[in-house]
Amino acid sequence: DGVVASEKAKSSNLDVKISQSELETEEKETEEKPTRESDSNILDGSSDYPRDKHISIQRHLTDLEKLADLREDKKKPCPLCPEEKFKACCGHKLRRHLQNLHWKVSVEFRGYRMCICHLPCRPVKPNLVGDQMLLKMGAHYHCIICSATIARRTDMIGHINRHVNKGETESRFITVRAPTSKVVKESATEVQVLPNHSTPHKTDSYFNPRMKLNRQLIFCALAVLAEERKPIECLDAFGATGIMGLQWAKHLRSSVKVTINDCNEKSVTIIKENCHLNKMKVKLNIKEGENDGTLGDGEENTDTIEVTKMDANVIMHLRSFDFIHLDPFGTSVNYLDSAFRNVRNLGIVSLTSTDVSSLYAKAQHVALRHYGCNIVRTEYYRELAARIVIAAVTRAAARCNKGIEVLLAVALEHFVLVVVRVLRGPSTADNSAKKIQYLIHCQWCEERIFQKEGNMVEESPYQQLPCDCHGSMPGRTAVLLGPLWSGSLFNTGFLRRMLLAAVQHGLDEAQPLLKILVCEAECTTLKHFSTHSPGDENKQEDCGIYIKTSNTSAETYLVPGKRKGEEVMRSAAKRQRAEHSAEHPAFYYNMHRHSIRGMNMPKLNKFLNYLSEAGYRVSRTHFDPMGVRTNAPLAQFKTVLMKYSTPTYTMGQAEGPIHLPGDDHRAEEAPAAADTKEEDAECPGDGKSGGTAAVPTESRPAHCAAD
């Protein structure tokens, strides 16, 4: 026993000595090679480093020289060049060759050098033989991340940068740590995004914080539809991070059945992780029919979100939905036919178009190619863009024997949002198609009018314009724009309920815009709204604006029987169409565009009151902060603007409205006896009430002459 104990003690001492010696050697290695610390930041572990990397990828020039086995007494070939291209030579020549022709033109990435390679690594066409094959075997680089071979150095640098931006850093050569994702919170919903989430071409989890207002408007529209019938099936066709569908499911809960779709596998993975982050149950439905019913950390939440990996056109062809939202990168015209094919009756289709360069007439040839519409840059270009998109939506719905009712159209700096209700039947499709007309636009004064319907071809359709530019100006003064949607852009009752939904869910950014939209839909200048609780239905009237919250909520639509349910839906649609009064005037005028040189314009709110006192309907518009939507013709608009403008110079002229040219014509009809008192007559507009006497232009001061 004593011998055994002594042997155990010796073995333990030996283990301690070995471990201490190992620690000492490790410390020495770390002191001698400080670069290993930087290598550990790049590599996850030394054991994970594979040995099958290409010989052109080295860390130091000495490593490249070791491949050549340089010796002074023997001639060695270049390890990166074929024998036909570079013959074997002595050590000093080969060292200079490796340094100048391979190492200096290398591409660096995380401490590694991708040297240029002349070996026959790239595939060659089979019909090339002999010298032609040697010519095709040009210099190239081997990617350190993937197995690609790229000829040019600049292309290789761009190739590596794209890998880094996409987070594709794991490879068979080196294992680089992927960029850490961060959590973004919006409307009580958390989503994980990559660091390059704001660049759509370089990331799979595109997330734009500036589109928060767009997401809130779409949520309000869905909340209004959820009050009409429950439950509704809604689709987010382009999920990306899935934040929109998560907001729907988290706030509306059992009222909606959310489906988030994306064709990118990495986006589907991110959507699934975000669902678990928000404690949502995930039902993963890919083409093969795989299901994943795992819950997140919170088992108490039974809400389920279905995540699909399909093309947007495919899923909309296969299934029917009550609410569909399209938000692709760019135009959405490629998905309209699929969206209207299976959408249910009285359902809603919303689409966001971000191709503002074509819609805002910066790329007119693209608008002609995508929308089949001829446009020019006008003062009302944003409303023109909204009507272009609605016209494309109307044509797509009519091809499926369906009509539309426009509920909302918003055009801001970065996007154009259109929300329409689907009405089945060929008659409604015909009525909607009749509202697609051409617009006659004057290029001199920017007056506009929709072309009148008729079977006869007019000799000069530009005479329909209220202005006289076609007669007084030489050449062609007007252009034909379109085809465009000529109907209303808003549904007042639907907007009121959207405003109430925004108040109930605390969407602060959407409320000011919805108030402007209600005023614009009714063409009124009222700005004050009542936002009481739902129990105060009888107290929600303020300044003529009434937010309707009927007690007959979604439960009234749950009528047993298919026929009765359809009748209730049809009556609800008729009531919604009757909620709004007369349609708002088409288009708007910009005050700065029609301002008078040398005159100070009145304030916008005062000018709206002046137009309203003149007997015209008038309101502000969200399309343009200085825009005025009115049914007054342009001539009357300019007349009122001139009347209440003041000169920028004083020179003895009093404040107040100036006299119009029509006043001078009426004054010239005065008796000729006034000419005898020409020297005593006073100039018009000098501050006296009777200053309208006829005075010849020659005898007036320069500042009193009529315009």
UniProtKB/TrEMBL annotation:
The record's similarity note reads: Belongs to the class I-like SAM-binding methyltransferase superfamily. Trm1 family.
Q: What is the name of this protein?
A: tRNA (guanine(27)-N(2))-dimethyltransferase
Regions of compositional bias (Polar residues) in chain numbering:
11-21
Record InterPro entries:
SAM-dependent_MTases_sf, Trm1, tRNA_met_Trm1_C, Znf_C2H2_type
What reaction does this catalyse?
guanosine(27) in tRNA(Tyr) + 2 S-adenosyl-L-methionine = N(2)-dimethylguanosine(27) in tRNA(Tyr) + 2 S-adenosyl-L-homocysteine + 2 H(+)
Bilayer-crossing regions:
none
Q: Where is the C2H2-type domain?
A: 143-163
> What Pfam families has UniProt attached to this entry?
TRM
Instruction: Please list where the region (Disordered) is annotated.
Output: 1-51, 656-707
The root-end lineage is:
Eukaryota, Metazoa, Chordata, Craniata, Vertebrata
Where in the cell does this protein reside? Nucleus, Nucleolus
Q: Which GO molecular function annotation, any one, does this entry have?
A: tRNA (guanine) methyltransferase activity
Gene Ontology process terms (BP): tRNA N2-guanine methylation
Choose one Gene Ontology CC annotation of this protein and give it: nucleolus
User: Basic and acidic residues compositional bias: what residue ranges?
Assistant: 30-39
Protein's organism: Furnarius figulus
Tell me which UniProt keywords the record has, alphabetically: Isopeptide bond, Metal-binding, Methyltransferase, Nucleus, Phosphoprotein, RNA-binding, S-adenosyl-L-methionine, Transferase, tRNA processing, tRNA-binding, Ubl conjugation, Zinc, Zinc-finger
